[in-house]
Amino acid sequence: MSRKQAAPAARKADVGHAPAEVLFASAAVERLEAKATLPAKFQRMLDRLPMKRICGEAAVALKVHVGGNIGFTTIPPLFIRLLVQKIKDAGAKRVFVTDGSPSIHEATARGYTEEVLGAPLVGAAGVSDRYFYRHPVGYKTLEEIEVCGNIQDADALVNLSHFKGHGDCGYGAACKNLAMGCVTQKSRGDLHLLEGGLEYDEKLCSKCKKCVEACTRNAAKWNAEQDRLEIFYHNCVYCRHCVLACPKDAIKITGGGFVPFQHGMALAAREILRTFQPGRAVHITFLTQITVYCDCWGFSTPPLIPDVGIVASEDIAAVEKASLDLTRDGDPLPGSLPPGHKLVEGRHLMERIHGKDPYVQVDRLEAVGLGTAAYRLREIK
Ligand code: SF4
Ligand code: SF4
């Protein structure tokens, strides 16, 4: 086990439902001068955070999703450099920039280098994704989470995430940056196994493939090798067209849909955060260059909406809720969706795109004792 003592997860009762403070730096420019633009506001935002208490005398892990291949809509290196400097100014013993082991080593091609960022780039689970600590969770098929060793060994965590759409959970930001980004590849696979919502009874199936024809999302696929139906939940919007098209009642909607996956991610985030002492973690989310799919796809598409800004809080549920509220309305900008991608019903833009209610992630964070969705937004000018 780690040399660090596991900190207890904060419970709802501990926070007493008092609104958490979320700082907000708007991308909107009121005056045409450098100090009115986002990098300058970001620096003032960091000055408002208790960086000395969070990072002082600490080995600080700065977790960022560096993307892959020829993607260019991740957080620009300039902002990471500014953040690294503030962490150093706060008296950190050392700071390293980290992400999944294969991604971080390839990130230099996109400008993420020690020279630019001012801190070394370190694989979260060592050079070969084999340095981790086991955390039992015992939820459905998810027996344990393998938390990356270099994350757990750090004294403080700066969770720097980029908000974007995601087919499996509606969106990805602070929770996902931890749950999928601070665990091993094996645990990522185990988390994905929690996805579901449709039940297929092969014994009733006549192999007519009407379900595949009825699916306009390319989610119902025929596995030719096994001669059976397969659901790609990333694309599924739970529209029930396949259920209605089936003449044999071989497909059923089981309810709950993608919620277990979200719950598993919240549990993983909790296991990661509980390795830090209270007051030693902060969550910063960039609501800029918001694309339809995750940065891990290795390419970028045009933004769905105009840039919103940056939010930051010590409360992960609050920062997620604020991120969602600030990106909820409006229609996707022309050219930002794949051709033929139709919107469905939903209360948030990402739900209308991916068919999954993104607020479930906030609800699950609260359910596992990670903060409160009640927040007070404080704008940085
Ligand atoms: S529920 Fe809709 S999107 Fe999902 S597999 Fe069936 S037809 Fe396709
Ligand atoms: S529509 Fe029903 S019976 Fe036909 S292939 Fe699909 S699941 Fe099987």
Molecular structure report:
- With 381 residues, this protein is α/β, with parallel strands linked by helices.
- It has two domains: 12-193 and 258-379, LarA, N-terminal domain (Rossmann fold, 3-Layer(aba) Sandwich), CATH 3.40.50; 198-253, 2-Layer Sandwich (Alpha-Beta Plaits).
- The chain is built from 15 helices and 16 strands.
- The protein has helices at residues 12-15, 38-48, 51-55, 77-89, 101-106, 114-117, 149-153, 174-179, 185-192, 210-214, 241-245, 259-273, 316-326, 349-354, 359-367; strands spanning 20-26, 59-64, 94-99, 121-123, 132-139, 142-148, 156-162, 164-166, 170-172, 198-200, 220-223, 228-231, 251-253, 281-287, 309-313, 375-379.
- Strands 4-3-2-7-14-15-1-16 form an eight-stranded mixed sheet, sandwiched between helices. The protein has a two-stranded antiparallel ribbon with strand order 5-6. It has a two-stranded antiparallel sheet with strand order 8-9.
- The longest helix is centred in the last third of the chain and has 15 residues, at 259-273.
- The chain starts with 11 loop residues before the first helix and ends with a strand.
- The model is unreliable at 8-15 (pLDDT under 50).
- Bound molecules: iron/sulfur cluster (2 copies).
- One iron/sulfur cluster (SF4) binds at residues 214-215, 217, 219-220, 231, 236-242.
